[in-house]
Design a protein that fits this description.
six-stranded mixed β-sheet, four-stranded antiparallel β-sheet, Rossmann fold, 10 strands
C-alpha cells in the first residue's frame, strides 16, 4: 500500500544574517530525512528543543518547503501541486500548533473561526453553521458557545476549537505540533484522549510532535527520534521503548521515560519530564 506521506532525503537549511558577522550563518535544521507515514497510524516524533521536529513538520506540509529532497503525499510529489491541487492538498493535510491563543483570530466568534476553511471551500452559510455545530459536539464543546469570542474560552477549550477548525475540511492527515505543551497538566490528558477518540471515529492519520516522551509513547504506534536535524531511528513504540538502537535514544529514554509496557497504561502520564 502506498504510504500517505513519504519524505525522501529531505533537507532544510536556514541562512541567518548577523550584523556582527561578515557572512550569513547556515543552519542545517533537517538533514537528509527519509520517513514514511502509513495511512491510519499515529507516528510520534520526539526530540529535544532545537532538534528539528517542527521544521520537519512544516516541510512535510509544504508550509516551509524543503531545501532539497521530495515530499510525496499519497504517492504524488507535493512540489508539483499548483492552484486547485495545492488547495486540495491543504485541505487533506492540516496542522494544529502549540499555541491555541495565537492560532485564533480574537475578532471572530468561535463558530465563525471553525467555519473558516468551509468558507474557502464555498460552502453555503447554513451548511457551514450545521457543520460547525457537529464539530463543536465532536470536540466536546457545547453548541451554545458558538457565538462566544476566543477570550471567553479556557486554554483547553481554545485548543479544542483549533482542533475543530482543522477537522472542518475533513483532512486525512493531522500534524500535531506540541499540541498540549502550553496547557495545564490536568487538561493535557483530556486533549490527548480526545485526539485518540477523534482518530478512531474519523480514521485519521496523525503525526504527533513533542519533546515529552511519555506523551509520545502513550499516543503513538511508531516513534521517530530526532537530534540536531537528523532522524536517528524509527521503530514501533514497544520496540523502541524496550530495545532502542541508538545510544542517544537510550540516554534520552533512560532519563525521561517512566514506563515501558504501554499496554498497561490507562491514562497518559503527563508532566513528568524535567
Amino acid at each position: 500500500m502506498t504510504p500517505l506521506v513519504e519524505l525522501q532525503r529531505v533537507n532544510k537549511v536556514h541562512r541567518r544574517h548577523s550584523l556582527f558577522e561578515a557572512t550569513d550563518r547556515t543552519v542545517h535544521a533537517v538533514r537528509a530525512v527519509d520517513l514514511t507515514v502509513s495511512r491510519g497510524e499515529v507516528l510520534g516524533i520526539v526530540g529535544e528543543s532545537g532538534s528539528g521536529k517542527s521544521t520537519l513538520a512544516r516541510a512535510m506540509l509544504y508550509l516551509d518547503p524543503p531545501t532539497a529532497g521530495r515530499v510525496l503525499f499519497d504517492g504524488e510529489d507535493v512540489a508539483r501541486f499548483r492552484g486547485r491541487r495545492l488547495l486540495h492538498f491543504r485541505d487533506r493535510a492540516q496542522i494544529v500548533f502549540q499555541d491555541p491563543h495565537g492560532a485564533l483570530n480574537p475578532r471572530l466568534r468561535a463558530g465563525r473561526a471553525v467555519e473558516e476553511g468551509l468558507i474557502a471551500q464555498g460552502m453555503r452559510p447554513e451548511d457551514r453553521r450545521a457543520r460547525a455545530a457537529e464539530l463543536f459536539d465532536l470536540v466536546g464543546l457545547p453548541g451554545s458557545r458558538m457565538d462566544d469570542y476566543p477570550h471567553e474560552f479556557s486554554g483547553g477549550q481554545k485548543q479544542r476549537l483549533v482542533i475543530a477548525r482543522a477537522l472542518a475540511v475533513r483532512p486525512e492527515l493531522l500534524v500535531l505540533d506540541e499540541p498540549v505543551s502550553s496547557l495545564d497538566v490536568s487538561i493535557q490528558a483530556q486533549i490527548l484522549n480526545l485526539l485518540l477518540d477523534i482518530r478512531r471515529e474519523l480514521d485519521l492519520t496523525y503525526v504527533f510532535i513533542s519533546h515529552d516522551l511519555n506523551l509520545v509513547a502513550y499516543l503513538s504506534d511508531r516513534i521517530g527520534v530526532m537530534r540536531r536535524g537528523v532522524l536517528l531511528e524509527v521503530a514501533p513504540t514497544e520496540q523502541l521503548l524496550s530495545t532502542p538502537r541508538d545510544e542517544y535514544t537510550r540516554t534520552l529514554f533512560g532519563s525521561s521515560l517512566h514506563y515501558v509496557d504501554r499496554r498497561s497504561i490507562k491514562t497518559p502520564l503527563v508532566g513528568r519530564n524535567p
